[in-house]
Amino acid sequence: MKRLLVAVLLLSSVAVAAGLDVVASQTTAGIYDSKLTSRIKAPDKRKVVVWAKGLSELKSQYAELSYDPEARNQTYFLLLKGYSGTLKELAPKTTRKGIYQTTPVLQISGGMLDGSLLMLQKNTLKIYSSIYVLRFEPKLMPFLK
Description:
The chain has 145 residues and is an alpha+beta fold. It is built from 4 helices and 8 strands; from the N terminus they run H-H-E-E-E-E-H-E-E-E-E-H. A hairpin with a 5-residue loop joins strand 1 (38-41) and strand 2.
């Protein structure tokens, strides 16, 4: 148990030093599941975890992660409402790929979220892994590399 606690503390300190992209990646891997509010099974095998009070680590008032349970940290959609961070904190390098339903679509280059699509509008942030887009959001496929 002590080793687990030490590992979590080390990962948390690395996240603070490295940036919000690492924290988002840790979220997709399940590091913050002990703080979640609910778990939901979607009819298409996806699972959804919700942090109704948000995740302070991700500077949000509400967080939701939809993922494929067979590849959680590779096939995910992360929704953050009430996001108070900056785009640069989460994704230092992005490329504008176009507009989807009035929302700019950016692709993240480098870091833990490399290749993911990012959409930010009115303090609501959406991050789609490229595999998630291919499997569950085909309408966003034209924005991938």
